[in-house]
């Protein structure tokens, strides 16, 4: 995990860290109010804190539920997965952010609501991608070849699901992670702005409301860098769960 | 061994009229591409929404339409006119821009060699990986006005369209039937006119439909934050944002539901179009 | 055949009937496989092989109902169609999983058993990469690993569905023979199911054909039509070559090297070919032999990057280069050439424009190639061509997507006949067809050829099938011609070790080549065959042997073609 994480982070330097650093420097140079760069740094941390956990939890949950929906569509987990997969684009993050804002006005606690509002779209997206891939992996088509072979070689169903079918369902989710990150970013901006959280997104929206380019551009660039950082983290996770990278096997003498 | 089966040479008529693919089980029956029914229902929902929004003024009782006074459903339908017509405008612009981008890449490839084509599409890919939707509220705050907003919204959708359109066309240019046409001594312009262009139209249109859900979402997002369409036009996103700020659940539900429905159906149409344009 | 053994056969069925809805897929099949016996079941696509094996492995396909009795004693394994393993999971883990599951042993012992299995499959120790995931090892090595895995488990019954399908014939037959040897030595009942043209029957003790839902014993006379029933002697008129290709070469540009120097990959090295009127030439070779590239180069689709291709004395290459703004005269010449020289494509279904009916695209082709035929006569001409290819009248109005593979192949033939050509260049014309459909199509092609007195170039990897009706054969290996001779000579006494191996494989015998063909990007120096060849000596690494004439009309490119060690490849 560590080596691939470091490699991915180094790869992300030009697309992630450089824009963020440039944005902070830019804020210090052109922003009207003093201490803008520090505010921006804090804002980036808030946005990261908002998006990262919800993306991780939502994607994991959605992948498992979506895969299960293809295995046992009538079970409780399967129904949940089908619900998530069917909802898909029905619930964009910014709309959920509005609902969350409404609930906060009614007296709910903002942090868990905010995370939930961002996790649901990620889960929907993951389930939408995982379900058909799992169905293909278990189906009669050419993509089901590995599962048929494993059955023919006499493996038990649990091993087959875990090692032969699930990896095929995870692949499209990991490929589609980029769009999930972007959707989460949009949702986070809406959430911060509606709930008055001190994130980079609300900084950008405040700047836009004030009509000041100096207030808009640094947070915008920083958010683009943050997106690239999250995508890089996703790639590191993909490397980690990919079994092809965990092959250091003692087989000497064989 | 029972080798001498007396019925061995009995000829049966060919068994199954159902075509069986070389691999896979016998239970395969020709069927419509995946998501076709969903796409059809999405199109129907989208059409119904458009009609309802267009007919909304008839439902309002008075001669003057004042959104704040009207009941929430009628107000939401009125808002839909702004959202849907803007989305259509921006989607057409964005889809066109994306297709032109992909075609220009091919033109560049023909003039300056293949690396130039690859570079221009790689640029689109990199752009499609950025959170371009954030540009829409920024532009709404900085420039205001309908047309700048429409152009920026269209620009956020164009790279994704360009990438898909490019992939579809480059798959098509390698198709074997173009070689068959060349073997019939058709000159290159005729090959393009008679075989390439008719087969490219459908995938290109499908790629362009990708723009619709994107621009609808981007505009709603910007309007939600009060930085989207001018207030005179009305928009689902603006109503949702206003209701959220005021803490008014009754005012939030109708536009939010209509917006979710419109987004779902736009996505369903785009998914079905893209899946249907691929060769099975 | 009625072996009465003390112990019952491990695999036995009695009046086994398989139904899909109300279709009978398999009608009252009775078969029995003894210990150490190898049984082959052959049948075309959709004949019900997979359904039969599924029932025998106790994993019936969904929607298939079985009646009758099927009994399997002892441990059974099914090697499913396609030979896929979990693509990203390292091989070692999968081996440990399977072997450990059946035998309850740890990873190290499982891998040791696996290594024994790989020895039996003839995989050299250097090629054993247990740490790699299956997607990173070659297809043939993956099949060898599957067989070795089965050997490591040691089942009583092994069922293999289309084993090694898609591999080159020489590689496929080598592995199948190894598998059969293992089964005989270990007393395993082995059932191989596959398409007849894949020659899974080669290593088998007994062959059953699955045809129209019945399992029938293969007729006493094997379908070995290799003795050429007097191949039609071409009217050999010296000097009357219709198509004359000289030093035809093909190179593809690669990305520039580290110093920015341009690089290219040469796949076809200066091949000469003459096609006389009424003559049939078979281009024989396996993956990477550039037989398809040569066929395309002869058609100038795309034109070769080196050498010349002349049709009746007129060079086609300059006119066919697309970028050059060739003169009108050249275009007219190219049009006349194309009228005389028509292609058959390897994937006929993909060679039809999906947005036009068959009649519409035939009309376009006819309009372009034969402007002398008035528009009113075109429909008649199209109907004639379709009839000649054995298609019913209604086909003209159908859409390409609705055609079956067999109909598409025949429609491709009909299109080639439209313009009244004098020669056809066919690249694996029957690659999408199997069993009866395949032989039916090839028969039609032969009838059409004889009827229209066409010259024919056929590129194929099926050695005996390609030569059966040919006058001459040209054996290609890695873009070089390694042997060229009359068809009868190649079918009886080929001299090059590669030709011998291909002939053996096409008869279902054991080819005397080890290992796999090297990749096109990493060809060994000298003779491309030397790492697999039984005759190879040190000198083979130094130079590609020249093509020399060993007897009139028979050329061989091998340093040691007359060396005594023929090995098993002679296959007499």
TrEMBL record, chain A:
Keywords: Cell membrane, Membrane, Transmembrane, Transmembrane helix, Transport
CDD domains in the record: TM_PBP2
Pfam families: BPD_transp_1
Transmembrane portions of the chain: 12-31, 43-71, 83-106, 112-130, 211-237
Compartment annotation: Cell membrane
InterPro entries: MetI-like, MetI-like_sf
Annotated membrane topology: Multi-pass membrane protein
PROSITE patterns xref list: ABC_TM1 (PS50928)
Protein origin, superkingdom: Bacteria
Limits of the ABC transmembrane type-1 domain: 44-238
PANTHER family: INNER MEMBRANE ABC TRANSPORTER
Similarity comment: Belongs to the binding-protein-dependent transport system permease family.
Name of the featured protein: ABC-type dipeptide/oligopeptide/nickel transport system permease component
Source organism: Azospirillum picis
From TrEMBL, chain C:
Domain ABC transporter: from-to ranges: 11-237, 243-503
Any GO molecular function: ATP binding
Location in or out of the cell: Cell inner membrane
Main location: membrane
Bilayer topology: Peripheral membrane protein
The entry's keywords: ATP-binding, Cell inner membrane, Cell membrane, Membrane, Nucleotide-binding, Translocase, Transport
Coiled-coil parts of chain: none
Entry-linked InterPro entries: AAA+_ATPase, ABC_Ni/Peptide_Import, ABC_transporter-like_ATP-bd, Oligopep_ABC_C, P-loop_NTPase
PANTHER family (alphabetical): ATPASE AAA-TYPE CORE DOMAIN-CONTAINING PROTEIN (PTHR43297:SF14), OLIGOPEPTIDE TRANSPORT ATP-BINDING PROTEIN APPD (PTHR43297)
Family: Belongs to the ABC transporter superfamily.
Listed name of the protein: Peptide/nickel transport system ATP-binding protein
